Inverse folding.
């Protein structure tokens, strides 16, 4: 078993929802309420040492429920391995999850992009504003209900 998965299942047994393996890649679906604590553990524990956040993506799984999710790709230079975390958010017009900018400063830009394009809000983000679209843009263009030709 992957050391990160074993660690998460030991420390957060009620927050690990699902573990999947596909072609050597591990994805752990976790409850969003503990995402910051989970990320801190994976970064700081000497068994895992996931010090590099390579990507955060906001996801729209419509018409599935829950509709929105956030995916985090982490990499450990020390162990040369990676893991993907997935947090599925409550069905809501304004999906929200805690910011992980205190864990990895690069999350600042990734979270702003997910906010701008999918409309996911990150609680505790130091400067959550649009990053790609004009400030007066209405809507989030990567949501599945966004008109293909724009508004």
């Amino acid at each position: 078993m992957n050391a990160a998965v074993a660690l998460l299942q030991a420390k957060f047994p009620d927050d690990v929802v699902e573990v999947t393996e596909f072609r050597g890649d591990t994805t752990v679906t976790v409850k969003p309420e503990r995402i910051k604590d989970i990320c801190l553990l994976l970064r700081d524990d000497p068994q895992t040492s996931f010090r590099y956040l390579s990507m955060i993506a906001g996801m729209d799984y419509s018409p599935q429920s829950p509709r929105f999710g956030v995916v985090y790709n982490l990499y450990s230079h020390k162990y040369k391995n990676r893991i993907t975390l997935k947090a599925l958010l409550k069905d809501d017009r304004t999906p929200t999850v805690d910011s992980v900018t205190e864990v990895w400063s690069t999350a600042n830009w990734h979270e702003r992009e997910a906010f701008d394009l999918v409309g996911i809000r990150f609680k505790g983000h130091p400067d959550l504003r649009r990053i790609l679209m004009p400030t007066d843009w209405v809507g989030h263009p990567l949501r599945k209900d966004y008109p293909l030709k724009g508004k």
